[in-house]
Amino acid sequence: MPGLLIETLQGNRADQIPLWLMRQAGRYLPEYRALRADKGGFLDLVYDSEAAAEITIQPIRRFGFDGAILFSDILIVPHAMGQNLEFLAGEGPRLSPKLLDTPLKGLEAVPEHLEAIYRTVARVKALLGPETPYFGTTLLGFAGSPWTVATYMVAGEGSRDQHDTRAMAYRDPAAFQGIIDAIVAVTVEYLAGQIEAGAEAVQLFDSWAGSLAPKEFERWVIAPNAAIVASVKARFPDVPIIGFPKGAGEKLAAYVRETGVDAVGVDETIDPEWAARELPAGLPVQGNLDPLLLLAGGDALDAAAEHILKTFAGRPHVFNLGHGIGQFTPIAHVERLIQKIRGWRG
Description:
By secondary structure, the protein is of the alpha/beta class. The protein has 15 helices and nine strands.
């Protein structure tokens, strides 16, 4: 029997609002920190399917969220495409060689990196099975969208304005198109592998979509995501796809129309009243509490959550944050939010 989250992503409204949080499996949880201290670095955890499955389940066990988001990282795709990947303490991820200096054809694919993720999905699926107390929880897979993944592949690391990648796309659009096309092809197979292993819905994270001008947004965000959605839907027509182009602003409506996603994540910079008015009627919307409000807590948290709930009451709505939960977020604040959402009847 489908759970509340999957029903909502399929376009059905219910009195109760499904809830999950981006980055809910992570550093704010003491059980995660304990496991990481025992197992080693971040990438070691991602490729340890038993540990990654345990981390995926930790927030479900503690909070009873309606969705279990796979514990992994968007940079698994470039790692599988042949770039070296490491996570440096206090500095974030590093990819080498940079595609700013090295042609894409110089990379040698390592598909076994993806196989480890599929094993994690299968393990989590078993932990959410009909004989478990978590049956009905939707298993969410994910991948990074091509633009965001490309920004890391080109520059070798994250940046505030994606300067190097934006400049390359202007300077040599044909070469950059080749990078995007390669990411699209791997991402389609990666999402298909996750679905075959047990993922019931998938999300495309485009964390840096907001850095692009409108025409570039059309070419490097909308077009590649539309290609991924069409290919995945051709193989798995009943699996919902959530698009999350963070920072898209007023371009969000075009993104929804042109990519064909089943649901859209709304970040905290978007006025929910604008989203409720401008997005297609009946489209499931996910979001959009500011993660800093969850960190702050108190009456402001309650008021903002209630405003979001009221504003999206006329359509299928998945309550979530506008981006990932912060690592210093108090557990008590998460519990307070859950109580608010669970007590709401739209």
